[in-house]
Specification:
The chain is of the alpha/beta class. The protein has two domains: 17-136 and 290-305, 3-Layer(aba) Sandwich (Rossmann fold); 138-289, Aspartate/ornithine carbamoyltransferase (Rossmann fold). It contains eleven helices and nine strands. It has a five-stranded parallel sheet. Strand 1 (48-53), helix 2 (59-70) and strand 2 form a beta-alpha-beta unit. Helix 1 (17-34) packs across helix 5 (138-152). The longest helix has 20 residues, at 286-305. It is globular and about 55 Å long. The chain starts with 16 loop residues before the first helix and ends in a 6-residue tail after the last helix.
Length: 311
């Protein structure tokens, strides 16, 4: 029997299809809770969760906090700017402090790749990686998979195009790992300076320099946020040129399947990587992704802290 109880959620690279499927199935049950008038389960009563964020976040942090509270857990938020971190406290000491207080899980975002894996080796609470540098963002990938399955009814055999800044995107890495595990055909496209070379050697990944090639007959298009801070390094054209060459608009959308699904991890640069009428059009499930994020994170907390079925 598959169980995630006590498992650290660091990335999807080593998740089995069965483990991914377990999370998605639980998330479906949890989404029903979000639609109730009273959004409360006693599942995690008596459990304590800390969200430890060294970088800004709106969707991920808020959804983990809501997920914990909907499950009756005690949730404490810690940010770098309002804690002893500003006094020079190390990550190790912060983690050991949380462990000494008896917390059951730490949801952590940090700018350094591998920070979540380090935390898992350092302390005993369950560690859930909410983003470690450009390395991984497993819960985002799981909510993307959940959204795709919810809309399309399946995962295996679909063609998904991931567009934009692949090089610096932890979402892209986790999506690729999870999608390949679930039998999805993955196509990536963007400026050559933002396409990591290792992708050319990875089985099951189709790399394109032209967006049109990637999205042709695609079932799903996942548009990544262009990190404008990278533009200063000259890694892609000006914002106007990027929108013209790589942006998703209604004209390019005609190349994909008629029922193509549009995703975006947020926050969006409307008019840059995605046109407003695409972002809010009939094909878009971008807002649904936000709600699905709460359901998926409820599932992760339930499965890692209790391993049991929701009540």
């Amino acid at each position: 029997m598959i169980s995630l109880r006590g498992k650290d959620i660091l990335d999807l690279e080593f998740f089995s299809p069965g483990e991914i499927g377990l999370v998605l199935d639980y998330a479906k049950e949890m989404k029903n809770i979000i639609h109730r008038d009273i959004k409360k389960l006693p599942t995690l009563r008596g459990k304590s969760i800390v969200t430890l964020f060294y970088e800004p976040s709106t969707r991920t942090r808020s959804s983990f906090e809501l997920a914990g509270k909907y499950l009756s857990a005690d949730v404490i938020n810690i940010t770098a700017g309002t804690s002893s971190i500003v006094k020079g406290e190390s990550l190790r000491d912060t983690l050991l402090t949380m462990e000494a207080m008896g917390v059951d899980a730490i949801v952590m975002r940090h700018k350094a790749e591998g920070s979540a894996a380090y935390a898992a080796k350092t302390v005993s609470p369950v560690i859930i990686n909410a983003g470690d540098g450009a390395h991984a963002h497993p819960s985002q990938a799981l909510l993307d998979l959940f959204t795709i399955r919810e809309v399309k009814g399946r995962l295996e055999g679909l063609k998904v195009a991931i567009l934009g800044d692949i090089l610096h995107s932890r979402v892209a890495r986790s999506d690729i790992w999870g999608m390949r595990q679930m039998g999805i055909e993955v196509h990536v496209a963007g400026p050559k300076t933002l396409l990591p070379r290792y992708l050319l050697e990875e089985p099951g990944i189709h790399v394109h320099s032209r967006v049109e090639e990637a999205i042709e007959e695609a079932d799903v298009i996942n548009v990544l946020r262009i990190q404008l801070e990278r533009q200063k390094a000259g890694l892609f054209p000006s914002p106007r040129e990027y929108a013209r060459i790589f942006g998703i608009n209604q004209e390019r959308l005609k190349l994909a399947k008629d029922d193509v699904l549009i995703l975006h991890p947020g926050p969006m640069n409307r008019g840059l990587e995605i046109a407003p009428d695409v972002a809010y059009g009939d094909h878009s499930s971008i807002q649904e992704q936000v709600q699905n994020g709460v359901a998926v994170r409820m599932a992760l907390l339930t499965l890692t802290l209790t391993g049991g079925k929701p009540e």
